[in-house]
Amino acid sequence: MASMLSSTPSFHLLRRRPSILRRISASKLPTPPPPTPPGQAYQPFRPPPSPLPTKYRSLSPLERLEVLRDRLGLWYEYAPLISSLLTHEGFTPPSIEETTGITGIEQNRICVAARVRESLISSSFDPDFLPFFDSLGSAELLYELRLLNAAQRASAARYVAIHRLDPKSAQDLARAIKDFPRRRGDDGWTSFSADNPGDCLAYTHFRLSREAIETPDRVAALEKALEVAETDSAIARIEEEIVKASKGEEAGGDGEDAEAIKPSIPVVRLRYGEVADASSVALIPVVSERDGAGGMEAAPAWCKAEGEMGVVSAERGWGRWVVLPGWGPVAALEGGVAVEFADARVLPWKVGRYEKEAVLVVADRRRRAVAEAEGLYLVAGPREEKETRLGVKRGKELMEKGIEESLGFVVLVVRPPKEGEDDQLSVEDWD
């Protein structure tokens, strides 16, 4: 029997198994802890350091509330007390407000600003400017820089301290710095420096000047840009635009004869989140190109915000609306309407240069007279016996046909957002 077992494969496996198990178990043994000094227990876990300043760590919750109530210390020193009370002591923002008088909004602002200040200390920020942010009011300044990265925060905080900006100006600066990289490819963008906060703010005014309708508004925006621009290339570009505006030339014009000037209608590509970041917005009724002239007439002629809550009321009920940032051409509209076209190639720009995509054409219905040869106008043309479809025509083409009135003057063309694309139409793109 023993000889029979020894001749089977399973018997040999059983004989070899103990050594295999020893090798497997040895490979899975945990790493022994490092040797510790005699008399001390091994402690593999070390709790994180306390976020509270040393002088506040021994205080009871009641004593911490007293520090907050009496503002004992600098704002960024007692800011961690708020977080500790909320996280470890079971307090809520309303209960802290009831005891200390610090509102929930102010609690959040102080805590966020303290973290921003800490990020400045750990970055390349010049420590000589830190005392500027010691006063309680400076917490609101740092709070506005929360959305910037570390390098942007350092340069923005330095700019805020040097120019003694107020919270509203700090907010405008932070938004300009955040928005500047998104404008890559826009006209004049390369003349401004992304590493210079003043240039970022100047480019915001420069861009707004190109959206202005009236020449005085355009010049005023350019003068604001010139006040804050710091690099030589930015200053030169702004001064060039001021000269053009003073001569009454259109933005982007190159001094050509009137017959060769292309339409000066702004064409913008909406960016993701741009409406949410806008300081003001406009609510405009939307009409489909299939609705024809009847749809244009049926759309509300006015809508406006009323009362302290800003509730928007319209002339009549309407089912389709669009919210756009308060750009210059849009903010100045009264009786405006947006026409939705399924194919952007309905516009008179060079065929084949751009793919088929939907666009919104914003028009001013008060300006119906065909008075500008290079302007664009909304018209309705027959497609079938009982159907009309909206279209866009040049003023020159309508004048040649003897047409003196349109459905509205085009003031803006809005293209849909597209990830990773900042393309804008140039003068040469128009047909």
From TrEMBL:
Domain annotation Rubisco accumulation factor 1 alpha-helical: ranges: 137-241
InterPro entries named among the record's database cross-references: RAF1, Raf1_C, Raf1_HTH, Raf1_N
Keyword hit for Chaperone: yes
Name recorded for this polypeptide: Rubisco accumulation factor 1.1, chloroplastic
Domain Rubisco accumulation factor 1 C-terminal: 265-418
Keywords assigned by UniProt, alphabetized: Chaperone
Pfam families noted in UniProt: Raf1_HTH, Raf1_N, RuBisCo_chap_C
Organism the protein comes from: Dioscorea zingiberensis
Location of the region described as Disordered in the Swiss-Prot/TrEMBL record: 26-56
Boundaries of every Rubisco accumulation factor 1 helix turn helix domain copy: 63-120
GO biological process: ribulose bisphosphate carboxylase complex assembly
Record's GO cellular component terms: chloroplast
